[in-house]
């Protein structure tokens, strides 16, 4: 295991085409399947998803491999990261046969097709192709797995091993084609801290996951001051506070610097149409404006931030919708 955790891969931070291949089989089980899906969503948040930066693809595999989201869809809806997150949440069924090679072949095939498409369009020809595979390393067709090689157009295959039973054989199955193998579940059955696993993955990229520099974002226009809850007691906006990496100051302070800019950038990065800040600079977002009317207007908003029970709401110009 040690030789795969040596020097970081020094992958670029820009122009990445990333495909996530998720093992959805009964050997993983529902508990680890949920862990895998949640971890994938958190990992996606570490990259700046946009037309000119990172684009996402998604494959699930069991007996067969299946596209869940392809890179062309990501091109048409670049930045709409919520679309991919919804597709991850929609994966429920677990197959009873694991063909790991089918999942990797599908990911490699998708990269090849997209490269040909981009060559024809003369775009993103310098993008680096990355495959993340999350699996317990088990496979029913060992000979097919051993004969599978990483194609030259794929820059890196990063394997994250987790499940109720991960053995040394799991590492051997992937050793010939993975550029990096990271154990979330150890061979002795113990589980490493999730954050340490995340940090080990991000060490392979030539940028800090919590960059202080805020990328350029489209101009946001103020829509108004609205109650934080609807007339039914529901939150009018969805919180983005789970992404502490981008929102909280280096010293852990909640009264963050550049709160408006950080919230605007994160909302745009995830593909939301609107966003808002309350009096504590808590960042929230939504896909449409329809729910704000349910709570009514408020008057206690301050400059660029809401009040005790209100959000000041902004929308990206040219992207305003009254329905979700």
From TrEMBL:
Superkingdom, taxonomy of origin: Eukaryota
Pfam families associated with the record: VWA (PF00092)
Location of the VWFA domain: 17-205
Gene3D superfamilies assigned to the protein according to its UniProt record, in alphabetical order: von Willebrand factor, type A domain (3.40.50.410)
Protein name: VWFA domain-containing protein
Organism: Pocillopora damicornis
